[in-house]
Amino acid sequence: MNVTIGNQRKTADEFHDEVMLTENRQEGTIRFWKQRKYNVRYKVNEREKSCHMKTKTIQQVPAEPLGKNHLQMGLSAIIFTTILWGLSFVSIKITVAVIPPMTLALLRFLIASGILLFLLKKVEPSARLNRKDIPSMAVSGLLGVTAYYYFQNNGVKMTTASAASMIIAIIPILTLIGDFLIFKTKLSLVKMLSVILSLGGVYLIVSAAPPGSQDSLIGNLFMLGSALSWVAYTLITRPLSARYTQLAVVTYQTLFGTLALIPFVFFETWEWQLVNDLVILHLIYLGVFCSALANYLYVYAMGELGVSRVSVFINFIPVVSVLSGLAFLHETVSELQILGGIVILFSVYLVNRR
Hints:
This protein is mostly helical. The chain folds into two domains: 59 residues; 284 residues, no CATH class. 79% of the residues lie in helices and 2% in strands. It contains 13 helices and two strands, in the order ββααααααααααααα. The protein has a two-stranded antiparallel ribbon. Helix 5 packs parallel to helix 8. It is globular and about 55 Å long.
């Protein structure tokens, strides 16, 4: 029997052989793709299993403790920062007697801006400020630099460095109140007690001005305004810190705040001839060490030790300021002011204790 396929004539046996060959090829192709599909699934399952095992292994490895060198470097940085900022009140007191408050702030932050900008380009060359964050960064710079140092420099000029630093110690408590009012953070009974105690401590310091000394009272109120400015600055800065490094935030805010200081200088007059070597040294100290280096060390310490540990050391700034005011400026501190300072420090301790 012959079979005609197209133009070819084939016997039945030949036709049967070709059909069987085609079926075998089809079955082989099917088996091939089934095997390939199985292999792919097997590999995927093995990869997932491997990843799962790696994840379990990672989860089971305990976190490494903070290295001894890192701990020592972090502690050294925050202790040095505390001393620098504590002594800054003495330097402000000396320089503001010759250089007007806002001119002093501008000169100080011109130095700091140059150093911080250099550090930012060196450490984070790819850092860029997003256009949508410019308003927030500018407002925080106005509050944290322009407004803060307007109140602080004028306040220190009229009151003692010791009283000024003790009032500034209330900042953590005021920040707590700001969190409650703006972010609706719950206040525990201990925190509410801390707020009441701190406000009482500030009242003792402010009301302890010498009889007939109106300037001291106004200076203490200026320092309270300085503390409020810093709290507002902190609350605005919080979202920015989630998008930028601390060094970038400090640098951009310093640049904006420094620019905003310029118009105030034209309303101040002073005599250049009164500037001596001592004033220049204190000005350099404020710009290089207190505004640039201390900020950088503060950021470094937070990275090594964490915010909670760092905040404990910052609370000792008034202690350094009071001791340096007594030693270098021969200031007198009344018993009420000492009591007020102790009450404020105790209230901060209550908030931070575990």
